């Protein structure tokens, strides 16, 4: 049974490595001036990998229960205590988890910075900082001139 668990951990590790690599690719895309062409396929692949990871975690938890161990972290610690191969693979997996978590947080910050910049740019274009003169907001019209909305 531990061989089955080990195989699941190896597959989970490989999938998580692919996910972490995809996050690095996403980070590069987010640093570009116009990332919109690259982001949709990245998001699609991230969704696919996330679903696979959730399935593998569920599978791993089921295998732990079949071994009479609790699911999750506690069960993996107990399973690893009795098998050095499982313990080593679990440790490798946790390292990738930390790397992916850090990359995901970085990407989230990059997205927030970009969103804040876009909101400020829109506010300037709409004249939000000075638009409340007379109660009417102003925006740029198709002719490039500011007009009240």
From TrEMBL:
GO terms for biological process: bacterial-type flagellum assembly. Keywords: Bacterial flagellum biogenesis, Cell projection, Cilium, Flagellum. SUPFAM superfamilies: FlgN-like (SSF140566). The keyword Zinc does not apply. It comes from the Bacteria. InterPro entries: FlgN-like (IPR007809), FlgN-like_sf (IPR036679). It holds the Pfam family FlgN. The keyword Secreted does not apply. Belongs to the FlgN family. Required for the efficient initiation of filament assembly. This is Flagellar protein FlgN.
């Amino acid at each position: 049974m531990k061989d089955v668990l080990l195989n699941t951990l190896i597959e989970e590790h490989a999938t998580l490595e692919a996910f972490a690599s995809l996050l690095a690719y996403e980070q590069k895309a987010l640093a570009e001036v116009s990332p919109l062409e690259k982001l949709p396929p990245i998001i699609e692949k991230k969704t696919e990998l996330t679903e696979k990871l959730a399935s593998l975690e569920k599978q791993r938890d089921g295998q732990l229960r079949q071994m009479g161990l609790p699911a999750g972290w506690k069960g993996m610690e107990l399973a690893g205590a009795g098998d050095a191969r499982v313990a080593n693979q679990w440790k490798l997996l946790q390292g990738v988890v930390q790397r992916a978590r850090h990359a995901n947080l970085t990407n989230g910050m990059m997205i927030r910075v970009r969103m804040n910049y876009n909101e400020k740019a829109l506010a300037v274009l709409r004249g939000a900082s000075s638009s409340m003169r007379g109660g009417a907001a102003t925006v740029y019209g198709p002719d490039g001139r500011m007009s009240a909305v």
